[in-house]
Amino acid sequence: MTPQGAADGHWVTVWAASAQGPYPIGAAIAQPDLRGALPDPARGLVDQSIRMLLRPALWSPRFRVRLSNRFGDRTLRLRDTSLGIHLGGGALVPGTRVTLPDATLAPGEVAWTPAVSLPSPEGPRATWPVPALAYGAWVEGASGPITWHAKAMATSYLSAPGDHRAAGSDSELGFPHTTTSMLFVDALDAWLPPGTGALVAFGDSLTDGTATTLNGADRWTDVLQRELRAAGRHDLAVVNAGIGGNQVVGPAPGAGPWRGGPAAVDRLEHDVLSLSGVRTVVWLQGINDFGDHGGAEADAVLHAITGAVARLRARGLGVLGATLPSALGSARVGHGGARQDARRRAFNEMLRRASPFDALIDLDAALTDAATGRLHASFDRDSTFGEPGDGVHPDRAGHAAIARCVAAILRPAS
Q: Regarding the domain delimited by 195-409, which CATH topology (the fold level of the hierarchy) does it fall under?
């Protein structure tokens, strides 16, 4: 779909939140008590409004939104839909809310909205910050199970059940409830010049952002985008397609909804290949497959990744990959034991000897303390709660270190 009257360009995905299952399956961060807003997950949202905040990596005067009812069991009817510029809290910048057509999605359906034009922020392109956008709508009737991304690491807003009026206002007063998850929206496209493309960060919680700062925009993907911008690169949108708990080869097909979403090899088409303008993929995952109780062996995971990389290359994409930092000693369920660490170290050595990737980023060397074999203490904190870390997830400083390693591998724009 080409925007009518638009200058030469193409669609590029500039934000994503990979749909992982029906609410509440998953692991959110600092989630408020949603029983007031969502008393019955099976019924979902009932005649109430949503205002979902989306942070585009690059700005454009034209955007479109991908809506998702992938994990729903009934028709989803979104009314009084719009896209506007976020002011603060649950409010919009007055006069920026642009109306979209109502949307009706069958169970399992995913659909793009038509393109809409938004006013551009003032100031030179190289200096102004890219504002967040807000997708608004109200759900007619009961939505049923909500397709969601649990760990959005940003606050969005919900009205009380039965209040559909809030969707039609710029005000935040009709949105008493907040959520740190993303509902019904899984991608945002911008109309950008032909030389612009997307880099998709494909991974688990090390990409999704556990232990980074809620509303701080300091996941490694966010930091990398700012570093590219500072270096004068406006040709690459860094898109986060991480899902906390995601596995490369698990769970088994037919096992039902899993908190980490579909296996990486199964979600590759929807969460990477169906996005717009993708040039490069950064693959960072595998640690969740190497459990102490069951789990997969290193060679099985590497074999699956090699097959996935071949699929990406067949579509003309470059693929960067990474070694895995340590989770040794963690008390987090599924992590911390000697068996997991032996598999992780074996996996890393296989990558160093014969990587299937175009380039290998050694995050193990950057984040693991060689003296203890554990996640380095300087990165083992929780930036949202101000508490000690869990031994698996690096804090905001650790994510900055990841961004530095990825930035060093990316070639300057030609």
A: Rossmann fold (3.40.50)
